[in-house]
């Protein structure tokens, strides 16, 4: 795998006349923790769906976990990828038990819950629910949980197959301040865990970057504005270009914040 979990070269995605991604070069190495930051419509979800092997680019080459997309069988890759997004959540039935939401990703993030699971699978699902602070909901229907509770269950689900790459698309979207801070703290703990998979987290807000994240990719209009170690990428210039507004950026040693300058 050359130490590369993900490698994109010259990646472009076009739908009709619309360019969703343009000439994206991006490499994620083992152990790295990346945030993808950009405004609405920048192409963040499109980029993540390519990494999740759900979408093939119109141009360029993509390697995920050493496999070139378009060559091998992506179904063998899927159990090695954890993916939490609102689209994945939308595929889950509201009346599915929380424990089953997690266990159903044992063999890949598109599991339906109709597969057979073993006692060790359920033990792992319960351990993950415990680690994300939502074990008390294991018997509840997924649809009865609050947004914040659901987000944590979805991350537990994405970790169920013990993936080598974990993709989180806006895990803090729609959370209140307390729930967001709780989630950022838990994601920070995950980021600092050396046994955790490579992480890619998509967000609109620099305040949501958990401590321990190492790299950033800034995206605007389908193009990379900057990519690399966070301290090099998260400058006022880069973020102002990314969001199309003059911004002041601060880092307190752990967390980032930005406001109009
Ligand atoms: N099938 C399609 N045809 C045309 N345009 C599309 C298609 N799918 C997505 N787009 C457009 O591509 C752009 C990128 O979408 P994408 O969902 O990747 O952005 P995003 O950065 O994740 O945005 P958000 O932060 O709002 O979720 C958007 O402007 C979207 O409207």
From TrEMBL:
UniProt keywords, alphabetically: ATP-binding, Nucleotide-binding
A GO molecular-function descriptor: ATP binding
Record-annotated ABC transporter domain positions: 6-246
InterPro entries attached to this UniProt entry: AAA+_ATPase, ABC_transporter-like_ATP-bd, P-loop_NTPase
PROSITE patterns recorded: ABC_TRANSPORTER_2
TM spans (from-to): none
Record keyword ATP-binding present: yes
Domain of life: Bacteria
Keyword Protein biosynthesis recorded: no
Pfam families reported for this sequence: ABC_tran
Name of the molecule in the record: ABC transporter ATP-binding protein
């Amino acid at each position: 795998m050359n130490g590369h979990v993900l490698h994109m070269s010259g990646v472009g995605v076009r739908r009709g006349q619309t360019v969703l991604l343009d000439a994206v070069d991006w490499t994620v190495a083992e152990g790295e923790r990346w945030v993808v930051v950009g405004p609405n419509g920048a192409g963040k979800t499109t980029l993540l769906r390519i990494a999740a092997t759900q979408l093939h680019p119109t141009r360029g080459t993509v390697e995920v976990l050493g496999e070139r997309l378009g060559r091998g069988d992506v179904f063998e890759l899927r159990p090695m990828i954890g993916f939490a997004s609102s689209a994945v959540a939308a595929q889950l039935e509201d009346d599915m038990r929380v424990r089953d939401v997690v266990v159903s990703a044992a063999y890949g993030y598109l599991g339906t819950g109709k597969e057979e699971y073993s006692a060790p699978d359920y033990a792992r699902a319960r351990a993950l629910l415990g680690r994300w602070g939502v074990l008390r909901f294991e018997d509840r229907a997924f649809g009865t949980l609050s947004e914040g509770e659901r987000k944590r269950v979805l991350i537990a689900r994405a970790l169920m197959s013990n993936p080598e790459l974990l993709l989180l698309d806006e895990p803090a979207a729609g959370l209140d301040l307390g729930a967001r801070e709780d989630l950022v703290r838990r994601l920070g703990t995950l980021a600092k865990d050396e046994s955790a998979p490579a992480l890619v987290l998509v967000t609109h807000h620099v305040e949501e970057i958990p401590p321990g994240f190492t790299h950033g990719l800034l995206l605007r209009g389908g193009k990379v504005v900057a990519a690399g170690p966070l301290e090099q990428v998260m400058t006022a210039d880069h973020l102002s270009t990314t969001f199309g507004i003059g911004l002041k950026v601060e880092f307190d040693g752990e967390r980032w914040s930005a406001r109009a300058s």
